[in-house]
Amino acid sequence: MQFNNLLVQKENNLAILTINRPAALNALNADTLHELGQAIQMLTEDQEVKVIILTGAGEKAFVAGADIAFMQQLDPIAARQFALTGQMVFNQIESCPKPVIAAINGYALGGGCELAMACDIRIASEKAKFGQPEVNLGVIPGFAGTQRLARLVGKGKAKELIFTGDMIDAQEAYQIGLINQIVPHDQLMDQTKKMGLKIASKALVAVQLAKRAINEGLEMPLEQANYHEANYFGLCFATNDQKEGMAAFLAKRPPQFQGK
Ligand code: HXC
């Protein structure tokens, strides 16, 4: 599939999805969101792909937000629809069975920060900068930033960042739990691929069920979530990889997982 605003590369069991509008710091317009949805769908169905890495083209930005020039001409109904469309695509990323890792190479602002938060894991260059600057434009986050930021860093810090519009550096983002790791800028892709390959080497169904158990469980009361976890735990025993993993451990040899 050919895209105007995205690049898709595959290597080993990884897919690298790059938002490619560097002249606009990879800002998200409706076309780019639409393509992102299509690409995630395509990679979800691609049996060769076990882990997806999401990054931004160029040296400066992961994604500098929703496209302000595009948003400027929207009426309230169209603006609401734009927010809902973005939320739908970001939900698709969050519920994609395959782990999605954000490799944050620069600015992750507004919709860019929201996109990173929809990913499972966030690895950032030391040069990355984060923020929800929507109040500077007379609006609020609309791609679920009010919700995902509060869930990731807590209500107080989320309100501070969203009310002030302040930008924070990678160090502060790490301290508040917004990102998983900071790496030197020139090692960002190597380190992200390393984590991606490590995850890809594990029992595929187990990783996918773990993602579901965490995401779905967080929306449930604890007792129900724990029961849900036990059901998925039981389901793992329907896979060859469970038999192989446990047999390999007891035989003191490395496992040979088949992904089923
Ligand atoms: C459209 C953007 C853009 C954006 C940058 N550009 N961000 N275009 N939408 N979000 C464009 C600039 O207009 C400029 O185009 C080019 O990219 C380079 O940007 P500069 O501003 O010249 O670069 P620099 O001085 O280095 O500043 C970088 C920056 C700044 C700090 C990231 O660009 C900035 O503040 N951008 C806006 C960030 C923002 O407010 N994001 C939140 C958007 S609201 P030209 O043609 O002049 O070269 C949002 C809502 C989400 O995301 C929810 C929607 C429902």
Automatic annotation (TrEMBL):
Write down the superkingdom of origin: Bacteria
Q: What is its EC number?
A: 4.2.1.150
Question: One GO molecular-function annotation for this sequence?
Answer: 3-hydroxyacyl-CoA dehydratase activity
The GO annotation for biological process reads: fatty acid beta-oxidation
Catalyzed reactions? a short-chain (3S)-3-hydroxyacyl-CoA = a short-chain (2E)-enoyl-CoA + H2O
Pfam families xrefs: ECH_1
UniProt keywords, alphabetically: Lyase
Identify the metabolic or biological route this protein is part of: Lipid metabolism; butanoate metabolism
What SUPFAM superfamilies has UniProt attached to this entry? Answer: ClpP/crotonase (SSF52096)
Please give the subunit comment from the record: Homotetramer.
Q: Which family does it belong to?
A: Belongs to the enoyl-CoA hydratase/isomerase family.
The family database entries (NCBIfam families) matched by this protein are listed as: PRK05809.1
What this protein is called in its record is: short-chain-enoyl-CoA hydratase
Q: What species is this protein from?
A: Carboxydocella sporoproducens DSM 16521
